[in-house]
Design a protein that fits this description.
- The chain is about 55% helix and about 5% strand.
- It contains 23 helices and seven strands.
- The radius of gyration is 25 Å and the shape is globular.
- It starts with a helix and ends in a 21-residue tail after the last strand.
Length: about 550
């Protein structure tokens, strides 16, 4: 690798790390970077001289040892992701619905209320089966901040680079192709969609699955099983992805031992899925009707009705998979891996199996595989891509000068279609909001306007580490809150603010960035109501 190329790459990485903190939108960097790569791709397409340079660069990269580069690459990737996520959090562009909720659940678990969600007053295991949150909660003993969860997610996604490179080294003899696979993973828009949208425990499945796949390829089935077992605690639908890989291994395993192990994995994963969905979640929810059934209402109103309709009308599944949004999502997913999985069609079985339940959904974000919905699919996507690379490696390497243009074009598309991590913001507004948040003491009860979604839910992640957290709808008839502090938006809560002031028990103590903070006044030297004891879990739903 030439000295100029090394300096350029270091400067690009440094710019990517620093850019979010400027207050400029993230796409203000990603789109111009994609445009520059597009110009480079055009030069590689039509200039023999540039193709010779690309061939020389590939030969230079082939001399780099990916094994030694794996951990440094993972470290650089972690710093980049951490910069993006911490800036997103610090500039109040996170959301309560995921980051704040998980942080609140982790905090309550540490306070002796396992998996209690303060806003809903219910046990979160009745919504999603994610026991791993109890382990994530331990991070608050080191740093009691929701940002600790973001760093855990960044560390997990970055650590996935190491087993990915291990898999790629088994799939290809060319170090340059191994490093190219790692770069495609680190730039993959679906990976960044998982990273960009707050915190989700299923993101931890990505490195775990890569390690399990690496052990599987090495023939170390017991270490693979030990990695797979904890994955059941990441989310209730993880067993479906494991079952799909088990079917693939059972049908196309390269030895009787692996085929038997595949069928055992498929049977175990399906049994675990049935127990979690039919027994565990209903137990904590207090109902056999899932809160997520409405996302599949066109298939039926219950799990039994959905299965019956699919079996009696076998054309339903193919027709739903042919919806334009689903076809587009599937094409984008394969394209993000350079369409290499198409060279190994059998390896697409776990890819499709991992996301089939999302593709059948009526919920657009889910069947489009945006946000966290591609997390279980990504490890198997790159596993299939590496299987495809094994079959066409020689042809790819022989045409490396010409194919460099295609690779650069793909990197241009991946760079240009990076998701929004941070939108434009002004540090003056950020500091005003931060000053408002600091006025709410740790542990004090808080009520926030949730009339439209959660109102200004971007502030609530910063206030989530408290058991006494509730919401109200300022558009409904006024009911005096019991919380010590009330957070509302005066532009749509003027009547509520007037009613709150009229009680004589609340006064406004701060405002900033379009928000107002009100505090209940102490009476006769006593601690204000709602601040003397944590709320207890409400009835199951």
């Amino acid at each position: 690798m030439s000295r100029h190329l090394k300096i350029s790459l270091w400067l690009l990485w440094l710019l990517a790390v620093v850019w979010p903190w400027t207050g400029l939108p993230w796409r203000g960097l990603s789109i111009p970077a994609g445009a520059l790569l597009l110009i480079l791709g055009l030069a590689l397409s039509f200039s023999r001289r540039w193709q010779d340079r690309a061939r020389a660069a590939a030969d230079g990269l082939d001399a780099v040892d990916p094994g030694r580069a794996a951990w440094p690459l993972a470290g650089l990737f972690f710093v980049w992701l951490a910069s993006l996520k911490l800036c997103q959090y610090a500039s109040f562009q996170s959301h309560y619905g995921d980051l704040g909720q998980d942080a609140n659940i982790c905090w309550n678990t540490l306070q002796g209320l396992p998996f209690f969600d303060s806003l809903t007053g219910t046990n979160f295991l009745g919504d999603h089966f994610e026991p791993v949150l109890a382990v994530c909660a331990l991070a608050f003993k080191v740093w009691p901040s929701p940002a600790a969860l973001l760093l855990i997610q960044c560390l997990a996604l970055a650590a996935a680079v190491v087993p990915l490179i291990g898999l790629a080294r088994r799939a290809s003899r060319r170090n340059a192709l191994v490093l190219a696979a790692a770069l495609l993973f680190m730039l993959n828009p679906f990976l960044h969609l998982v990273s960009e949208f707050d915190f989700h425990p299923e993101a931890l499945f990505i490195p775990a699955a890569f390690w399990a796949l690496l052990f599987w390829e090495q023939g170390r089935l017991w270490p693979a099983a030990l990695v797979v077992l904890p994955c059941l605690a990441f989310k209730e639908d993880v067993p479906l992805a494991l079952a799909a890989f088990g079917v693939y291994a059972g049908l196309w395993g390269d030895s009787p031992r692996r085929r038997r192990a595949g069928w055992v994995l498929a049977a175990f994963a399906l049994a675990a899925f049935a127990v979690i969905v039919l027994k565990v979640i209903p137990h904590f929810a207090g109902s056999r009707v899932s809160v997520h059934h409405d996302r599949y209402v066109s298939l039926g109103t219950s799990a039994g009705e959905m299965i019956r309709n699919i079996l009696l009308h076998p054309w339903v599944v193919p027709l739903r998979l042919l919806r334009p949004g689903v076809v587009g999502a599937w094409a984008a997913l394969l394209g993000s891996a350079a369409f290499l999985p198409l060279a190994a069609p059998a390896a697409l079985v776990p890819v499709l199996g991992a996301c089939l339940h999302h593709l059948l959904s009526d919920y657009r974000s889910q069947y489009s595989l945006v946000s966290q919905y591609s997390a279980q699919t990504l490890p198997f996507l790159f596993y299939a891509a590496l299987k495809g690379l094994t079959l066409c490696e020689d042809r790819v390497w022989q045409k490396r000068g010409r194919l460099a243009a295609g690779f650069v074009f793909l990197c241009a598309v991946l760079a240009a279609f990076q998701p929004f991590y941070t939108g434009p913001f002004k540090w003056r507004n950020v500091l005003e909001a931060a000053a408002l948040v600091r006025q709410v003491p740790d542990g004090a009860s808080l009520a926030a306007d949730g009339g439209r979604g959660l109102g200004r839910e971007d502030l609530l992640p910063h206030l989530a580490l408290r058991t006494g957290l509730s919401q109200f709808d300022a558009a409904r008839p006024f009911q005096e809150p019991s919380a010590r502090y009330v957070l509302l938006s005066p532009d749509r809560s003027a009547a509520y603010a007037a009613a709150l002031a009229k009680t004589g028990r609340y006064r406004r103590i701060g405002s900033g960035d379009g928000l107002e903070l009100w505090s209940r006044q102490e009476e006769h030297g006593q601690v204000a109501a709602g601040d003397d004891a944590p709320a207890l879990p409400g009835p199951r739903r």
